Amino acid sequence: MSMIRDLRAAVRPALRRGGRSPYACDAAGGGTGGTSAVVDCAVYRGGRRDARHVSPGEALRALRSEEGGGDGAFVWIGLHEPTEQEFAGIAREFGLHPLAVEDAVHAHQRPKLERYDDSLFTVFKTIHYVEHARLTDTSEVVETGEVMCFTGRDYIITVRHGGQGSLRSLRHRLEDDPELLAKGPSAVLHAIADQVVDGYLAVAGAVQDDIDEVEIQVFSENAGRGRRGGDAGRIYQLKREVLEFKRAVSPLLRPMQLLSERPMRLVDPDIQKYFRDVADHLTRVNEQVLSFDDLLNSILQANLAQATVAQNEDMRKITSWAAIFAVPTMIAGIYGMNFDYMPELRWKYGYPTVMAVIAGICYVIHRGFKRNGWL
Q: pTM of the prediction?
């Protein structure tokens, strides 16, 4: 909260003066003015990158000078996991709202779209599929990161958290299409959203393969034999990873709907049509993730049911053999009572007859249990 108060105190006076902030954000600056988190900073005019290397503060001053504006000129600044001190200078230069700045610095935000005065603040969660030779009880299936975008009339600032979701290749791809890049910051925002959602589609396909593998193993011919529900741990782990996937996809539906349907001054009408395509892809991914969750619930229940059936089969076998062994135990117990006057004690064929009777009764009982499927 102290950072928010400091930023409010610094930003508002600068905006009221309508001039340049007294805090210069230069890449070579020291102390709190350092911007070592800046990955790339460039000015674009007519969709083409200015070859001159500039710092964020210099880029903004060049754009807003008398001869710097027009032709859809804007600045694109990319940062990776900036600290409060590293981002404070840029926040002051561009007049970013303190609440959005706090979210961008601390990360771990829910996907969302917020409007602050003349800027949009968008949060995307990136998803990366973690390759693994075999799914185990502790396998990590998806890895998440974040990309936050501050979109203004003549600037877009991207803040990335996590080791995945690099925007370098995206920047190069956009620079190869000057006509699209000339649409301004909203074109960059769309490209980022499109790349994030395309990543969701790729991860969804890989997760589907993992679920298919687990499903085949659970419902295979020998399922339940020797494992006794041993797949439950893997299914539960996969379910947890799908839940992480769901937390990235579902909250983004509303922001994409707003960007594709509601007119906004900061979004070019031609670009808004492209957001509809992104929203359609996101809806498809969301449906897939929801179906993954339902399918894993069914597989988990089936696995537990198989374990219960296997335990019941064991109990029936134990009960059957106990009933069979009860016959010789009972007869041996009777003849072991050592009474003087018991029938057939001194009969020559008494022993083989008793053994034959025991074997016959056990055989009949065994056949009965076998016929009923207990053995």
A: 0.74
